[in-house]
Description:
- The complex is a heterodimer.
- Chain A is mainly β.
- Chain A is 0% helix and 46% strand.
- A two-stranded antiparallel ribbon of chain B has the order 1-2.
- Chain A binds chain B through residues 4-7, 9, 11-22, 37-38, 40, 42, 44, 64, 66, 68, 70-72, 79, 83, 136, 138, 140-143, 145-146, 152, and chain B through 4-5, 8, 10-12, 14-23, 25, 27, 29, 32, 36, 40, 43-44, 46-48, 50-51, 54, 58.
Amino acid sequence: MKLIASAILTSAQANIQFTSITNAFDDLIIFMSLRNSADNAGGTIAFNTGGTYTRRRLLAVSTTVTTDTAAVDYQVNTSVSTANIFSNGSLYIPNYAGSTQKPYSSSSGNENNATTASNSLIAGLWNQTAAITQITLTPGAGNFVSGSEVYLYGITRGSDGIVTVT
Amino acid sequence: MELSQLLNKEEEMAETKLVIDCSNGVQTEVELTKEEIAQRKADLKAYELEEAARLAAEAEKAELQESANAKLLALGLTPEEVAALIS
């Protein structure tokens, strides 16, 4: 696993976009620590441009567990979350440079030191076959606030990205 | 209005995105286009509609569970028996 790019926001941003992603790896994984300026705990991912997305979400909010197909790809801390606390999550995209439709999955938690928190497991599919060269992370409303972090890693099968497997 | 609310309001007004060029690591703040702003508003509206439907479905389910519990208790089951039945 090798870090491709990362960012820590120093000001609020409507979205975060990775561009010119190399096709040198087999899979991609994004680690995210995010907070939304609005009271909206859902974030989405978009690959390149266009296409449609389908999702299956397993969502736990407090003690209630539900499943749905909401247009959400990960949980994000919100304006009503405990101050200065950010969400944690990861998003895995296998075979991102291949020529088939692109599945992805995420696990993420809206962290809260007060009362309500949520966790989700999401399996999604982007119905396009182009290699993914651009990824955009967008909050369901508002902006990702200053201090939000994203890390994009490339994964090579059978390798840690540092040691060469022979 | 509290300071945190003011800060949130200010953050909501940002109309830029952070573009990270993975080929060289350069990070650039870019103004959103009119189309992107319009899409953003449309996405928000769609999310709010979906979220409202999800919450309504949850509320309806909770109401049905409460009603079922009450009926089972009225039949003479103990709360423990009801819990065992629906778990």
